[in-house]
Design goal:
Layout lengths: L1 H11 L8 H19 L3 E8 L2 E9 L2 H4 L5 E3 L4 H7 L5 E2 L20 E8 L5 E9 L8 H25 L9
Antiparallel strand pairs: 1-2, 1-6, 2-3, 4-5, 5-6
Helix pairs in contact: 1-2, 2-5
């Protein structure tokens, strides 16, 4: 099962020189859907860090509340995402209620039971944001192998985002003779 999942993930995240911005967005969404379904989580999303804010760039879920959250933002410091990037929150948490620093975590609009989150690091070394999955219930079945797969998905997502950014950059004009 693991190999089949990894092959699907690699196929979805193939970056080609002629991909349009829309194709890149669809590929990122497919990566999120694969991760959410594979990990049996309620929500998977890509966040982007910008000017001290965490912006929900793409959200994959069956829950209309979270689907409508796409594009919303909150202060970066008040997000689980920043806590993960800073190392104040583990990347894999099977039961958030059991964390010794639970009282120090930012409040959430819904209860978070299980949580996986990894930084999305672009090829130039910049942290774009995070790739996250969570469920409202704890999930003791999550393993470090699942975290490894999420990291692989984040790496592939970083390549897709970098490709999208290159497509958005104006092409240098040819030098005149």
């Amino acid at each position: 099962m693991g190999t089949d999942f990894e092959e699907k993930l690699k196929r979805v995240a193939v970056v080609t020189a002629d991909m349009s911005h829309g194709q890149v967005d669809r590929s990122v969404r497919e990566v999120l859907q694969l991760m959410r379904e594979h990990l049996a989580m309620d929500v998977a999303f890509v966040s982007r860090f910008d000017d001290g804010r965490r912006i929900l760039h793409q959200v994959e879920t069956n829950d209309p509340y979270w689907r409508d959250a796409e594009g919303s933002s909150d202060p970066l410091e008040r997000s689980f995402c920043q806590h993960v990037v800073d190392g104040r929150l583990p990347q894999l948490v099977t039961d958030v209620r059991q964390l010794p620093n639970l009282a120090e975590l930012p409040p959430t609009s819904v209860p978070i039971g299980a949580h996986l989150s990894v930084p999305i690091v672009l090829p130039d070394g910049d942290v774009y944001g995070t790739l996250c999955c969570f469920s409202t219930a704890p999930n003791e079945a999550l393993t470090h192998r699942d975290l490894k797969r999420l990291r692989m998905a984040a790496d592939l997502t970083a390549r897709l985002i970098a490709k999208s950014r290159r497509n958005d950059d104006p092409q240098p004009e040819a030098a005149e003779s």
